[in-house]
Design a protein that fits this description.
This protein is an alpha+beta fold and 191 residues long. The protein has one domain: Four Helix Bundle (Hemerythrin (Met), subunit A). The chain is 43% helix and 10% strand. The protein contains 6 helices and 5 strands; from the N terminus they run αβαααβββααβ. The chain has helices spanning 20-26, 56-73, 81-96, 106-125, 153-163, 166-176; strands at 50-52, 128-133, 139-143, 149-151, 188-189. It has a 5-stranded mixed beta sheet with strand order 1-2-3-4-5. Helix 2 packs across helix 4 (106-125) and helix 3 crosses helix 5. 34% of the residues are buried.
């Protein structure tokens, strides 16, 4: 962590853009690739959950949100997963302590950081985005390669803003030990 150097966005007069709303608005979509869950056949049981690929509009929105998350933490796409994870944690903890301002609408910041966090999970663990259906809480989630587990990055970011950035690091550690996990079905939620 000590060797991390944040890239600063430059404003119109050449000064760093310290305003998170300005960085957020100036952000461009991440170049990708966007990691998507492998396809899985729709189950014959009409109540069983399943997922399908993201719509192109959702892909575009995710890539823009990832770019906005990078702008908030002031890192570029080429930074390592490790550096990006720690920058997200530092940003969340700094915002919780009142040292780093959030965007005018904090839900914008939370969504961007959630998408960026999810993107890092895809990079590190080969989990992919998918649209979960027929679940108690359907929506866009990250899905493990074997379809046994899902992760809801927005819930994790909300929890981190409430309980501290360590929540994100703990989740990452749980994913690292996923080889020991057992699930009798599909789409068990990682907490």
């Amino acid at each position: 962590m000590s060797g991390l150097r944040a890239m600063r966005s430059i404003g119109t007069l050449g000064e760093p853009m310290h305003d998170p709303d300005a960085r957020f608005e100036a952000a461009t979509a991440a170049a990708g690739p966007l990691f998507q869950a492998a396809p899985r056949r729709k189950p014959s049981n009409p109540r069983a959950p399943y997922h399908h690929a993201l719509e192109p509009d959702h892909e575009d929105e995710l890539l823009l949100s990832i770019g906005q998350g990078l702008a908030l933490i002031e890192l570029g796409e080429r930074h390592s997963v490790e550096a990006t994870f720690h920058a997200i944690v530092r940003y969340v903890d700094s915002a919780r302590a009142g040292n780093s301002p959030l965007t005018r609408d904090p839900t914008d910041a939370a969504l961007a950081l959630a998408c960026l966090f999810g993107h890092q999970i895809g990079r590190e663990f080969a989990w992919g985005w998918g649209h979960l259906r027929r679940a108690r809480t359907p929506g866009i989630v990250l899905i493990s390669p074997d379809f046994r587990h899902i992760l809801r990055p927005r819930r994790l970011i909300d929890s981190a803003f409430s309980d501290g950035g360590a929540v994100l690091l703990q989740c990452r550690e749980r994913l690292r030990s996923a080889a020991a996990w057992h699930s009798s079905g599909f789409y068990a939620q990682v907490r």
